[in-house]
Amino acid sequence: MEYQFVKGLTGEYRIKCSMGHEVIARWLEQEIYTDKVRIASLLEAIEKIKSEESQEYSLLGKEISIVIRRDEVTVQENSLDQDDDSLQESEFDFYDCESDAGCGLEDFEQLIQSWCEFIRYNIK
Fold it and tell me: Which protein family is it in (predicted)?
């Protein structure tokens, strides 16, 4: 997963992710942003999973949620959890690929650490 951090003209923090990982950028901007408590609990959860103290960590967001497991991190728009059989094989299936994404735990941890450096949040 490739990403780039940018600071907007009005000082807001932004992230651009590679194709297929756009929802991760939206999750970071909309659900985490500069919330130090959420960032700290996220990093703590990653450490617990890496040390096998925990198997899974879920963070339900307002629009986008995340599930962290030892082998993969999944980020998904909450609207995808809603089952609607009438929308199977719809013309919107193409857009679903921008609504969920996965990556490895190490890549995800590096992303969060890089984000902390970018927003100047001292991790330790």
Answer: Belongs to the UPF0231 family.
